[in-house]
Amino acid sequence: EVRLVQSGAEVKKPGESLKISCRGSGYIFTNYWVAWVRQMPGKGLEWMGVIYPGDSNTKYRPSFEGQVTISADKSINTAYLQWTSLKASDSAMYYCARHRSFTVPDSVVPLWFDLWGQGSLVTVSS
Amino acid sequence: DIVMTQSPDSLAVSLGEGATINCKSSQSVSYNSGGKEALAWYQQRPGQPPKLLIYWASTREYGVPDRFSGSGSGTDFTLTIRSLQAEDVAVYYCLQYYSTPWTFGQGTKVEIK
Fold first, then answer.
1. Is residue B37 within 8 Å of residue B73, measured between CB atoms?
2. What are the two backbone dihedrals, phi and then psi, of residue A122, each rounded to the nearest 5 degrees?
């Protein structure tokens, strides 16, 4: 079965660090871009950034650049989203999502999201 | 950034009736040739992750009931639900994948009247 499985809910204090994970299975993990999408309580969906696990090429939404780090370990088919110093405003549900893509010479172009993880709820509170 | 604006924000529809959701992009999401519109639709039921319904504006994802259909081009797109079922209660989002950052509409909540 093709799936993305995310790490569980986290409760942290402001200023603490956190790394959540997203493990792909049932497909060739290194051949697909994986994105992170934030959903704040009662709100809509916001694309944060994306990584291509094959070569760790990463792109960020400007508003998230420097605030989070996206990485991947292709040896264990896992992508990560990391914070060094959490704020209360980081409290949200975070989804990883796989991009359907098409291949052109020397490049894999990400398109829509065709597979989603179940979500990781992050709560930051003193 | 391409801004995606959906309308209405919410709608209540009787079971068996149709529902129409609109999505407008701040610039065209149409590729130069081939008539490809970089627009997808998602359904998010309460407490669940989003689920892909439609891509390339009108292509239904495998396994999605045919009561869901998408149309439109350029900057104006529509998701139509023919004969609403109880399980269609959800928030629906459009997504443009024409350029980074990928951007979603604000969502349209569909409820039963």
1. yes
2. -115, 125
- Cβ-defined contact of A44 to B97 (cutoff 8 Å): no
Phi, psi (deg, nearest 5) at residue A44:
-90, -165
pLDDT tens per residue across span A49-99:
999 999 999 999 999 999 999 999 999 999 999 999 999 999 999 999 999
Chain B partners within 8 Å of A44 (Cβ): 93, 104-107
Nearest chain B Cα distance for residue A126, angstroms: 25
Q: Does B95 touch chain A (CB under 8 A)?
A: yes
Say whether B51 sits in a helix, a strand or coil: strand
A124 falls in which pLDDT band (50, 70, 90)?
very high
